[in-house]
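User: Teach me something about this protein's shape.
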Amino acid sequence: MGFSIDPATPDDIPELARVHLASKLSAETYIIDQAYLNSFTQEAFEEKWQSFLAAEDSQQYIAFEGDKALGLISFGQLRTPPPGTSKIRPLYSSEIFAIYVHPDYIDKGIGKKLLQHAVLNLSDQKHQSLCLWVLEKNKRARGFYDKMGGQRIGKKMVEFGPTKAKELCYGWRDMSEI
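Assistant: First, the predicted structure itself:
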């Protein structure tokens, strides 16, 4: 499968929202309250991506095959440190805020290429470590992060509508191992 990874632009917002929404619904069904998930709309996700693209503290990329969006990634300087992290000498300096692959394209190497693309960009910015948060019950994503060498380094409770769920933090002290 040949695909490109390009910086996301405002013209990509409908595709970013489509991939994000489809992936989120696929991954979180049976984890998050179904009525809450059913309330998600393409328009609401387009609004989210307008604000994500406007954020100056993150970068967003989209994977395309032709004009079909396959996946996306958003990353930047650490925003949500793992519990117990020192603010003076943090162990992790960067974070993946979102990584989604459309459910029709899972297990085709897209997630790995997106993650590696983020690592290259973050390395160019002098980052050496990375973390991300994932729902504990999202076994597919957790299996991917385990396979990519991530270590579970923390957890926290989050709320999505009426659902309380545990998120796990995965970290890579040395991003070059990804």
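Now, about its shape. The beta strands are 4-7, 58-65, 68-77, 94-101, 130-135, 151-160, 163-172. The mean pLDDT is 95. If you'd like, I can walk through any region in more detail.
User: That's plenty for now, thanks!
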